[in-house]
Amino acid sequence: MTTEWNEVLERLLSLQQLDSKISRLEADLQRAPGDLKSREAAVAAVDAKIKTLADRTKVLRAQILLRENELKSHTAKISKLKTQASEVRTNKEFVAFRSEIANSQGDVDRLEGEVLKILEVVEQADKKVAELEGERAHELEMVEKAKAEIHERLADQRAELEGLRKERPTRLEGVPKETLELYQRAHKARGGRAMSALEGAYCSACGEMQTRNDVYAVQNRTRHVLCKACNRLLYQP
């Protein structure tokens, strides 16, 4: 059986090599959308920052509008008070009007100061938004570049994968049905890795120690041997 099993083992190793390529390509194809999503997430993060600043400046501009309306009211009041003050006949009345005018002017000065401070904050926010818009444009450019690269890579990988899948049936020729079933079972259960190299007396995939007889059989290629723990077909490199 040594010669027969030796030939079967070589076929299985060839099959395993092909299946490893298939598994790698399938994993790459599944991972590709995630790579693009991470780029798109970067754009969404910038959009969120821009929206936060835009919402903030909207509130600030509303506050400016309120103060400007108050300013108009106080300015109109001052103008009216000055007109009335010019018509008074006693010093006492004049002093009273002057005091009220001073109070209103104080309100005007306070409101103008508040408007200026709010405008500074708005200008800083607008500047930051402009910076973020530039960052967003860069991220969008990277998204488009990633899309092009991913689509090109996927096309190549799909073509390679299709070729490997077509080639696979030829690798099954000459493998006994029972052995092939063992291989396919392990292939499905172990994520595409149906075979494991023997390292000393241990399975390199799971680390399980093998019996002396099984180690001897693997080393001399006298029969097929399954790892007692992971059920992979063992071979000696």
Summarize this entry quickly:
With 237 residues, the protein is mainly alpha-helical.
Give an account of the 3D structure:
With 237 residues, this protein is mainly alpha-helical. It has a domain at 28-172: Orthogonal Bundle (Helix Hairpins). It contains four helices and three strands. A three-stranded mixed sheet has the order 2-1-3. Strand 1 (195-199) and strand 2 (202-203) form a beta hairpin. Helix 1 runs antiparallel to helix 2. It is rod-shaped. The relative contact order is 0.14.
Q: How many strands, which pairing sense, and closed or not: the largest β-sheet?
A: 3 strands, mixed
Average pLDDT, all residues: 89
Give the termini distance in whole angstroms: 19 Å
Shape: rod-shaped
User: According to CATH, what is the class of the domain at 28-172?
Assistant: Mainly Alpha
Instruction: Provide the CATH topology of the domain at 28-172.
Output: Helix Hairpins
What attributes does this structure have?
237 residues; mainly alpha; Helix Hairpins; 4 helices; 4% strand
